[in-house]
DNA sequence: GAGTGGTCTAGACCACTGT
DNA sequence: CAGTGGTCTAGACCACTCC
């Protein structure tokens, strides 16, 4: 507490938490705050930076410092997997109507812009281990971006890995121009005779890398959720590994675990 | 790229990613870096700060700047809920042996230090809504901290809310001195005739508040996972709402979703 | 053009760490 | 004690936003 910038940060933080400074409110100019606290401008800026790192403040160049508003959230539930499985064998027209993202967000197909990029890569050690194949095995790496037509930033950054030989039986699966595939991944896997038995999702969190912050248009003071989705076939094989980067402040992951009755 | 500190940060970041600077390596002194890049010390510090915010760097006062090492992870799977339910009606001695935390971490009861604090509170709006009770209803607020005996920082910060009247039938449930309750929450609820039907977990991520960083001993440049666990009874009522704060760099949440067979 | 935040300097002094 | 990072100043100039 002996430190000047911490004293300033504390005072402002308290004001924000107590609601004396509400969401969207503008703070006094930095020079003004410096006068009021009897400190230099850089010291005040240090305090503001701390608050920004905590996600409490939003800086707008040339405009001012504002109390951050909470962003609206997008949900992603694990019910989507059963939902997608149920649709995987449905008639084409029904599958084409909506995908799992529409299911989660409640948006229409027309509201969404979808982009896929395919690439053949040699399996890096970390992915090979999960897929249960030797390092260097040929994989199909698929990158997906989905965004609201009205917005600029995508919901998530998705990279999916499939074993090339496993899906090569259906050449249509190797061409990114067939995306978005009606019915999603499970429908794709079904086309080469694979039934997904269970999905495992591993979740951690960390600050975004600069490229991620850039592409997801994340303001400073936010985190990303890192989700690794592993799909198991009915024979126990791992058939898909997907890494998903989600904006932590806009995304709510929901997992429902049903329990056996007594 | 026109900006000096970004150029410096980029160069160091590239070196780290390429492995020219490996985990644990010490960087040259800040004054030395300033010379090398032909910039002032504060400018160099700005660059180092950016890298620290990304979780790439660890500053040690009086020692130096180091490339951050990855911390070992603790897992928390959603299988714990069924596991806990199975034990809820088991004989006392079996219940006393291990709890869900032991199940997740693979540690023994003796390795863990447990602390609980109970408090009666009036339901705040946000919690009341989830519990489906009027605002201001009397709740039992339970705060938990569990840590490794050998370590200082707890695994997580847990705050659980129960409706007072619902559990008052068993006065033992109102006394924190009865914690840790053998068999955990589901066993406690079972003692007042409640069977948990399903558990819903909502996950987001954000930077830690200073108090959280303090208590969990989080270094700068880390995020927290925010998990809200909602337990539903077989009659559809919400019987428990728990908020859990977990260190994002040390925790891996694992959710398994089984799918119905075709 | 007025007002805001963004970057940067050059140097001072303090606090911490390890020998 | 020497070397390191931590804090702070006073002021300069640039870049952006909005009127």
From TrEMBL, chains A, B:
SUPFAM superfamilies (UniProt xref): Chorismate lyase-like, Winged helix' DNA-binding domain
Coiled-coil region: none
PROSITE patterns assigned: HTH_GNTR
Keywords linked to the UniProt accession: DNA-binding, Transcription, Transcription regulation
Thylakoid as UniProt keyword: no
Annotated HTH gntR-type domain residues: 2-70
Source domain of life: Bacteria
Stored Pfam families: GntR, UTRA
Descriptive protein name: GntR family transcriptional regulator
Species: Streptomyces lunalinharesii
């Amino acid at each position: 507490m002996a430190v000047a910038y911490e004293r300033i940060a504390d005072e402002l933080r308290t004001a924000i938490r107590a609601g004396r400074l509400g969401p969207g409110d503008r703070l006094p100019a930095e020079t003004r705050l410096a006068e009021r606290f009897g400190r230099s401008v850089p010291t005040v800026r240090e305090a503001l930076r701390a608050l920004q790192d905590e996600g409490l403040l939003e800086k707008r160049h040339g405009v001012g410092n504002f109390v951050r508003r909470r962003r609206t959230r997008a949900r992603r539930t694990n019910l989507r997997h059963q939902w997608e499985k149920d649709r995987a064998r449905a008639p084409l027209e029904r599958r084409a109507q909506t995908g799992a993202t529409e299911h989660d967000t409640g948006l229409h197909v027309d509201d969404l812009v979808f982009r896929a990029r395919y690439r053949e890569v040699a399996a890096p050690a970390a992915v090979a281990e999960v897929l249960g194949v030797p390092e260097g095995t040929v994989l199909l790496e698929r990158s997906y971006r989905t965004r609201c037509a009205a917005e600029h930033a995508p919901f998530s950054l998705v990279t999916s890995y499939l074993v090339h030989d496993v899906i090569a039986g259906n050449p249509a699966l190797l061409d990114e121009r067939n995306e978005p595939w009606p019915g999603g991944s499970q429908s794709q896997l079904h086309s080469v005779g694979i039934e997904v038995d269970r999905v495992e999702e591993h979740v951690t969190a960390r600050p975004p890398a600069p490229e991620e912050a850039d592409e997801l248009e994340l303001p400073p003071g936010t985190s990303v959720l890192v989700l690794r989705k592993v799909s198991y076939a009915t024979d126990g094989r791992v058939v898909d590994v997907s890494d998903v980067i989600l904006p932590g402040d806009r995304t709510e992951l929901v997992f429902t675990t049903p329990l056996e009755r007594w």
